[in-house]
Design goal:
Length: about 475
Amino acid sequence: MGREISSQEVLCEDTFQHRLRSETSLVMQWFREGAFNPASPAFSGLELEAWLIDVDGFPAERNLEFLERLNDPAMVPELAAFNFEFNSEPRALSCRCFSDFEDELNTHWKQARTTAQEIGLRPMMIGIPPTPREGHLSLDTITPSERYRLLNERLFQLRGGKPLCVDIEGRDQLSLIQDHLMTEAACTSLQVHLMTSEENAVRNYNAMQVASAAIVAASANSPFLYGRRLWEETRIPAFGSAVNLPGPRGVDGRHASRVTFGERYLRSSLMELFIENLDTYIPFLPMVSQSEREELVHLKLQNGTIWRWNRPIVHASPGEAPHLRIENRVMAAGPTVVDVVANTAFAIGLTLHLAQEDGLEKRLPFELARRNLYACAKRGLGASVVWLDGQVHDIQSLICNALADLAEQALIDAGISALDASHYMGIIRARARNGQTGAAWQRAHANCHGNDHQMMVQGYLDRQEEGQPVHRWTH
């Protein structure tokens, strides 16, 4: 959910807009001058959100105690008091980078498990655990933070005090009226960053938009919310309901939602999205900083409170050329460390492949890319999609018989070792072959054992700790 608000920052919408416009103008100047890092080689990184679970399988509101005891700067608190987040070191896309990601994550995760066990808890990588009830997600369980308090306060201020409506239909129906944004805290994700050159940014961004449907289908891990069976990746509709603040209407009559897949492909530059941030969206957290213009504090704060499923990022460090990244946000956390790394590799590999496809945007109109994403979020590997040939395909077969192979070759072409590319895409291929994602395993467990969600959580955690990829899990 972004950085903490400092005591030196003040709330002032007019001044914030002025600073945002100035920083946006600076970024526009960087685009005109070609000032960005050429991203050769490109770098990648990941953020992994997780839960703390007690001995009964329920969320444990002890993240600050856990993190203080852990004392790991790579692990930070998240929105709810039972969430935390791991941030990897960025790595060049070369040779063994995905094996290195796995080693890094394993090291930190094992220490997190040890520390959690010392206080009677277990950490959990999952999109949405099946055990949280409405009482677990309230302002009483928010992490003490000025940023999080202001997010909730501003959301309802900008909604004119109107409550949020959560309405999701799957196998079951979930309809709730809420006076807080804490349903967002139920949606823990894997966020993958891909550094890009300015020259390739539009192709990479549009390609990641197209790839997102297959990425969601392969990584689905959120079939339950508040005990109801809903979508395979329920995070997608749940997050949209939790931060529902419609903006102005676009030319097609739709509102510009704060949680969005977007309205069209990019045409010529990532700058289009930063202009949209300025012109279309009112500031959510208009906190004014005394920072230097080049730090882009206000631009980043605005960008961080527009939750695109594929988010553009511009970053500048003193003494270095600014760089561009694309952050893919569609994947759930988990189920295991090796699954997380395989999902990361698939997301990057498929994006790199599609970025090389001639006429991508004409072959798959934007509205079909959007429909594909939501179809795969709802049905997972059971979804049907329209693909680049204009034909309807079963996404499970498409991944197993084509997309995993194409992603593997794209990784090798980018400099990843053939051994690494084969290993991680082999996991994706095997998962697609037998149809067992994290979401499918959870559904099958419920079919076998009934709705004993505490038993499901304990079984999931046992298998997660064993470390075998999810396609090998038994029920």
